[in-house]
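Researcher: Here's the sequence for the chain we discussed earlier.
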Amino acid sequence: SKYDKSQDAFLHMKFGVAPCAGLALLACLFKKELNPIDILWTFSIFLEAIAIVPQLFVLQRYREVENLTGHYVFFLGAYRGLYILNWIYRSYYEPFYRHNWLVYICGAVQTTLYIDFFYYYVISKYYGGKLTLP
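Model: Thanks. This is the structure I predict for it:
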């Protein structure tokens, strides 16, 4: 499939980039770490958490998801879920593991965004039908 700009109505700057930049600045102010690298890193963590939202909006608009696209989005979300398991494992078995609650929260938000898609993906695979979103 090809990208169709007319189907992409998500306002990336207004609902994605600008809020993440503002949250990154506020989080760094709160932590008193105002160097540019920390601000950019925090911004990237926030933006990564919601980066899938425009794709989910487009998929919701098309309703019927192509097989390759469905697999891609499912495994992208599964990757994030496995990443969370990695954090849990490392926190128990690495003696000097440094917890980063900001990363944990953003990872949980990102994984939560996939839950609805996961449900419809699993149902479609179980019944052997096409992946269609409500």
